[in-house]
Design goal:
single chain, 350 residues, alpha+beta, 10-stranded mixed β-sheet, globular
């Protein structure tokens, strides 16, 4: 069974192997053993309640329980930019006008911004290519939203997701090549690595503080603004189906879009419901029964799986294997939400 759980110290080697498969652009999952070990430690301290607010972050893993192998990761930062500035570009507009010459021109610009300081962030999403099937992607991405729904007090009112920007097949970013490289005098992979390993002070030291005119960029760089990496397109579609939207902010390195929303308006947060669980008598789900994400709402020992439960009045009926994977005990409730908004679930089941 595929199970979401909090990261553990022993997951380091599996996560390092995943980092080797990410390619350029996923700055929060660098192929650096010490950085990843520190990330795991920070996450564990967050769950233990010993991390300061500015460093709190939750790292989840997707485990193939049959193989005892971590095959995916996803994370939440509780509040970005509290310990060091969190930068992005705000896409704005300057108007150049002359009444006497009858000229009026709106010019797109990029402003260096810290507007998302203090907001929660969905980040570090990566699934092993061999497991990109079934509900695995939805499980890995949306388990975080169920966690936020259950433990709202740990997060800000707004959530953002910074998506990996467009790169070509050789890992080159046209946005970086036409903009960032002129100010940093280093190639994209090096800047990407420094950012991912926590060396971000150079951003403030070297980035221009004045508006940048988008029209001065090459056509391929302009086309990359708010465009995602091809591998990230499915993730963008899922996030947008949850209600997150592009609001005119992009990543300063590769131009990838930042999606955002009020947490309480996100579909999974809004529609999830608590149920009293029951164990199936052995009969399977109904034909074409919708898939649900099921969470145990145990903060320290959090678990999420996908399953096809039955609903009987006020009870949610699941198999013994699902019950065991969630680590349930008598009296514990289950938080459930359809995997997809268009699952066809009856009103009685919601």
């Amino acid at each position: 069974m595929m199970t979401i759980r909090p990261v553990e110290t022993g997951d380091l080697m599996d996560i390092l192997s995943l980092a080797d498969k990410t390619g350029a652009g996923l700055t929060s999952l660098p192929t650096h053993r010490d950085v990843l070990a520190a990330r795991i430690d920070r996450s564990i301290r967050t769950w233990q309640g010993t991390a300061e607010r500015g460093e709190q972050g939750y790292l989840f893993v997707l485990e193939d329980s049959e193989r005892h192998k971590v095959v995916g990761v996803s994370a939440i930062e509780a509040a970005v930019g509290l310990n060091e500035p969190w930068y992005n570009f705000r896409v704005g507009t300057l108007v150049h006008a002359s009444k006497s010459l009858n000229v009026y021109k709106a010019v797109p610009t990029l402003y260096l911004s810290n507007d998302h300081t203090g907001q929660s962030e969905l980040c570090t999403l990566f699934l092993d290519p061999d497991y990109r099937h079934g509900n695995n992607g939805h499980l890995l991405m949306k388990a975080r939203l169920l966690f936020m729904a259950a433990f709202r007090q740990h997060f800000s009112p707004r959530v953002i997701a910074e998506l990996r920007g467009y790169c070509d097949e050789q890992g080159n970013s046209p946005f970086w090549a036409n903009l960032g490289q002129h100010f940093f005098s280093m190639d994209f992979s090096q800047a990407d690595y420094l950012s991912g390993t926590g060396s971000k002070a150079f951003i403030a030291e070297l980035m221009p503080k004045h508006p940048l005119y988008v029209d001065f960029l090459a056509p391929e760089a302009r086309a990359a603004i708010a465009k995602v990496h091809p591998h990230t397109e499915p993730a963008r579609a899922v996030l947008e189906s949850e209600g997150l939207r592009y609001q005119g902010y992009i990543d300063i390195f590769d131009g990838g879009p930042i999606l955002e929303a009020e947490i309480d308006t996100v579909r999974t947060v809004r529609e999830c419901r608590l149920w009293v669980p029951g164990v199936s008598d052995g009969s399977g789900p109904e034909r074409d029964a919708p898939w649900f994400l099921l969470a145990n709402d145990d903060y320290r020992d959090y678990r999420v799986v996908s399953a096809q439960p039955r609903f009987e009045q006020d009870r949610l009926i699941i198999g013994a294997d699902v019950y065991a994977s969630l680590g349930l005990s008598p009296g514990r409730q289950v938080r459930a939400v359809p995997v997809r908004a268009s699952s066809g679930t009856s009103k009685a089941a919601l």
